[in-house]
């Protein structure tokens, strides 16, 4: 393994010099947004702004100061510090991020989290999957995380919670900023943004560019993205908000490694996956009209579009490699009415409706065919959806708050096979009802306790229902026959959830929070090896604890601790009682943030993961892993220098993997190796000074 000692030594020296610098005034060094976070903070993930104290939910707000102090190189890393979430990278190059919650796991192929950017959905039409690198961390002002089911507001794909990435479109006008940096493996990043205007018309734009050779062979990435926003006051009552997100990515995908290569050549790319790559273009426009139609009521109407084109080379071992082209178009429209009572016992009522349409065209080609790339599979899918929902929040007495909501969703999807029109149209229809109720009580201004119960559902993805990728399997007579893994008869996965938790402030310097939860999942969608296809084959139970605490040691230091216990087990069947594969039972983390001076911040972060298996039988256990990161930043007027050392002690144990079979049908465990120690340095310039 090649090590550039001179470069690393220079970067480490820079970090140490930043840490030891004493320039600048040593005045007050209060840590911005330090715990205790006020429970009066407004949460936007609830479709209408609500104070945190009124939510019967496990919630975490990651403010801008924390995002900057952590010097995250990708969005996924911001969520490493959130109890209840399990995050990892499948590429070891910062381009294959996965975020999962409460044991609802999918290895990034779909998402049980509803992920939003400024309230607009981010997941793709085909898989409900999320690319966590569509935005650079420098473009994000704040992150809101609501754990637990939020299907009563968002419907499908909100079984495990909501993550709302809030950009700088609401920042003060006149802000100009630039950020640039680089690190190991020729990882180069640059981003810039601007916001300006007046009370009647304001807007902003930001963009980023990232290139990297990647830690492993065949793991390079090139990303370019931009987002723009506009806010206009049409009258004293009506406001218009528009947003546009653009993104282009060219990404090589190194794939997992067998144990033999993991031990000897962790930077290698295993031959079956050596061709895999993905080129994609995204266009996500959104527009929202909001206005008051009475002294205590307002109306919101919004339209969101999602247009994507993908060219990829994909390997499914051991069946082989195919080229893929796909194009998807979708539009969602929503209208909602909010009424707020002005009585001595106020309550809020939100009612709304959503409708959506989308189509997906996918084509598969065999690039190794003797006559050149030959089309071997094709499918055209159209999906329409509709929903109605209602939610109310009532304060029946002082210190008490009650939330209740319900939502009905209907989805219809149709498949046509352009290469075999005689099969006709295949249709799948589903409907789901998602109720919820919660109650919370404040504790003398020092915190609150809450309890909630809710239902949720996760619709099968279009890929699980209708994917026409052919898999060639033995026919028993010495030949092979093409089959597909998809199944149009799949039912939605359904869940029932209970949460009990609270948050409490201890004096003026400490805060504790925790949630105990239980979830029962039925009709779980899994892969049936006996039938070699997706099926509703399993049930599961998820229960656990999410805890976090923060202590201000003094005006210049804060420590934050978090612990997640996740017991996600199969119910019934051959794996009854086993931990669901790839879900760790324990995830322990902590941060120590210090500010020796007003302008200097240094943070040490630790994450420990243990009791995690590759397979349903729980025979192949991943060894415990501990990762330590060091970050620091030093402000010089409008310029801030920052640096980071990731995986400080070079943890070499794989954080993720899965079990498959080899060409002879024997068990084959595959692993995703973490990157070695990595260094990053950069600078941030802001036109109106540092904004934490």
Task: Describe the protein's architecture and organization.
There is one protein chain. The protein is mainly beta. The protein has a single domain (5-535, 546-686), classed as Beta Barrel (Maltoporin, Chain A). 6% of the residues lie in helices and 57% in strands. The protein has a 22-stranded antiparallel beta barrel. Strands 3-8-9-6-7 form a 5-stranded mixed beta sheet. β22 and β23 form a beta hairpin. The two termini are 39 Å apart.
Helices and strands in order:
Elements: H1 5-20, E1 42-43, E2 50-51, E3 58-62, H2 64-70, H3 75-78, E4 85-89, E5 97-101, E6 113-117, E7 120-121, E8 140-147, H4 151-154, E9 161-167, E10 175-183, E11 187-197, E12 201-212, E13 221-233, E14 238-252, E15 257-258, H5 259-264, E16 277-294, E17 297-316, E18 320-340, E19 347-366, E20 374-394, E21 400-416, E22 426-442, E23 447-458, H6 462-466, E24 471-474, E25 480-483, E26 493-506, E27 510-528, E28 533-554, E29 557-571, E30 586-594, E31 600-610, E32 612-613, E33 621-622, E34 625-636, E35 639-646, E36 656-661, E37 667-672, E38 678-686
Parallel strand pairs: 6-9
Antiparallel strand pairs: 1-2, 3-8, 4-5, 6-7, 8-9, 10-11, 10-38, 11-12, 12-13, 13-14, 14-16, 15-37, 16-17, 17-18, 18-19, 19-20, 20-21, 21-22, 22-23, 23-26, 24-25, 26-27, 27-28, 28-29, 29-30, 30-31, 31-34, 32-33, 34-35, 35-38, 36-37
Biggest sheet character: 22 strands, antiparallel, barrel
Query: Based on DSSP secondary structure assignment, what is the total number of beta strands?
Result: 38
Describe the global form: globular
What is the total domain count? 1
